[in-house]
């Protein structure tokens, strides 16, 4: 598939183009491909409007792979994700093949029975408020 740069599986707010644009400072990934991670589920991070990816046997968490990320993109993403997440490697499935990519996982344990998170619900109910918060965070990180 795509080999240049880094590849990252995103399952939460970074699936939204406006959020990606703010965090990546306008840079576009080389390609964005639908993907799924097996034996995981996307749930609400406790007391937050954004998600966490947690293990759950038999579940499938949807997302996309961002291909062709630059070193400065990865640093910006590390800053954006902050102390609540750590970047690790995972294998995800696309329509064509399995891909070994980066993903951000929560540092703390979160129950797989926590309320499910979806990008559609987030866009309808949280996007406007969260996008302003995320844009302010990105602006602070640029200083």
From TrEMBL:
Entry protein name: Putative gamma-glutamylcyclotransferase
Domain named Gamma-glutamylcyclotransferase AIG2-like: residues: 8-122
CDD domains found in the cross-reference section: GGCT_like
InterPro entries linked: AIG2-like, AIG2-like_dom, GGCT-like, GGCT-like_sf
SUPFAM superfamilies per record: Gamma-glutamyl cyclotransferase-like
Top-rank taxon: Bacteria
Keyword terms: Transferase
Molecular-function GO term, any one: transferase activity
